[in-house]
Amino acid sequence: MSGVSRRRRSRVRVGGGSWFRNRAGADSGMASAEYAMGTLAACGFAAVLYKVVTSGAVSAALESVIGNALDAKF
Predict the structure, then answer these.
(1) Would you say 42 and 36 are in contact if contact means Cβ atoms under 8 Å apart?
(2) Which residues make Cβ contacts (< 8 Å) with residue 4, sequence separation at least 6?
(3) What is the pLDDT of residue 31?
(4) Does the model's pTM come out above 0.70?
(5) Higher pLDDT, 64 or 7
(6) Cβ 37 vs Cβ 44: under 8 Å
(7) Would the pLDDT of 27 be above 80?
(8) pLDDT of 53
(9) Which residues contact 15 (CB under 8 A, 6 or more apart)?
(10) Domain residue spans in the chain?
(11) The Cα angle at residue 21 between residues 6 and 1, in degrees rounded to 5
């Protein structure tokens, strides 16, 4: 870059910066889609977890743990 004047270098930097700004603006709609997919995944995980926790075996195990904790002698 020794042959390029200072003025020319500054124009190159400004042009490069505006390209990055324009490129980032073109991708701005992605955030909404990512939030929607994350919300759907979290709801699906919550539904599966709810089914597991309310199943008979897990419910009985939780009741016995809580019962043992309440019947503990101090």
Answers:
(1) no
(2) 12
(3) 83
(4) no
(5) 64
(6) no
(7) no
(8) 87
(9) none
(10) 6-70
(11) 25
What does the alpha-carbon distance between residue 50 and residue 43 come to, in Å, rounded to a whole number? 10
Q: Is the pLDDT of residue 21 over 80?
A: no
55 token code pair: 């199943």
d(CA 33, CA 53) in angstroms, rounded, equals 30
Question: Roughly what angle, to the nearest 10 degrees, separates helices 56-70 and 30-53?
Answer: 70
- The C-alpha atoms of residue 10 and residue 6 are separated, in whole angstroms, by 6
59 within 8 A of 53, measured Cβ to Cβ = yes
Q: Which tokens sit at 24?
A: 């980032």
Residue type, position 16, single letter: G
Which residue matches tokens 């043992």?
A: 68
Q: What are phi and psi of 7, to 5 degrees?
A: -65, -45
